[in-house]
Every structure is written in C-alpha cells, then in structure tokens.
Design goal:
This protein has 174 residues and is an all-alpha fold. 67% of the residues lie in helices and 0% in strands.
C-alpha cells in the first residue's frame, strides 16, 4: 500500500512521528481527528513486495498488529470522543487487531469446548462459538466493500472472504 498526503495536512497533524511500528496509521488517525478526510483510490497502483514465505508474512503481520495496538493505546480515547462517522471509523480501525486476537482465542478454545459439550458439561449453543462467528461477521462488510470493484459478483466475494478468514485464522495460531 502507499499513501499520498498533502504537505498542509502533514503539518496540521503535527508532522511524521516514528513513535509506533505503524506510523502511517498514527498519522491517518491524527489527520482524521483534525477533520481531514481520507480517500482510498484503487486506481493508484504502488509497486510492493510480498514477504518471501509464510514465516516472514507472520512476522510482518505481527508487527502490524502490534503497531495497531500501540496506536489504539495512544488514540482510542480521542477516537471515542470524536463525532459521527469519524468516531465509528477510527474505533473500528484501532480495534481491528482485537478481532484477530478473539479469533485466535476462540480457535484455541474450540477443542476444549467441543469436549465439554460432548460430555454434557456445557450447553450445545456454546459449541456454536458465537464470539468466533461474530468476529468473522464483523469483518465481512469491510472486506466485501473493499473487493466490490475487483470482484463484482457477491458469491465470488463471499468465497474469497472465506479464504481470507481461513488464511487469517491459520496465521493467528502459534
């Protein structure tokens, strides 16, 4: 990914701060809190490299999620105090790593929960793993919206989303 930022916006937000692992997120949060609007333009293509293997990808994703958590600690109170759509967008953005943490916890607990339900020690509804299902459902609108131009058919987007969730869940496991 890459971003284009107006110099006036950068100055208004207090400049570039390398205080988190995701300084671009830090800047975008500060810009939004100061009333600047951010627009995603799919027509701008930025050359990038993918990690060489799954291990490198996991390291990259871990760094990014750690950076998101750093920004959540720094900006969540301000995001909650923001008005309208800005508040919703920022809170969602700052807590995104929580969905992956919840996914990992639910996956790790799936086996013990299944055993407890099988023994009759837990209500069968517990086996539905509603928190895990909720994290998948909560991320779905963002993914489906982002893929709308690349994958115009809803069925195709849903299939790709299922693949994304499966891959993401596999990355969360130790």
């Amino acid at each position: 990914s890459g971003g284009l930022i107006r110099v006036a916006a950068l100055e208004a937000a207090g400049g570039w701060r390398p205080t988190t692992l995701t300084e671009d997120l830090d800047l975008s949060v500060r810009l939004q809190l100061r009333g600047w609007r951010i627009r995603f333009d799919e027509t701008i293509v930025v050359p990038a490299e993918l990690p060489d293997d799954v291990g490198a990808l996991r390291v990259q994703q871990h760094r990014w999620m750690r950076g998101v958590a750093q920004n959540a600690r720094a900006h969540l109170a301000s995001a909650l105090a923001a008005r309208g759509r800005t508040r919703g967008h920022l809170v969602w953005q700052l807590l995104e790593s929580g969905a992956f943490a919840a996914m990992a916890a639910c996956l790790l607990l799936a086996g013990p929960i299944a055993l407890a339900v099988g023994r009759g020690d837990a209500h069968p509804l517990v086996a539905a793993n509603l928190p895990l299902l909720g994290s998948f459902v909560a991320m779905m609108p963002v993914y489906l919206y982002a893929a709308r131009n690349r994958l115009p058919r809803l069925g195709s987007r849903l299939w790709h989303y299922a693949q994304f969730v499966s891959f993401s869940a596999a990355q969360t496991l130790p």
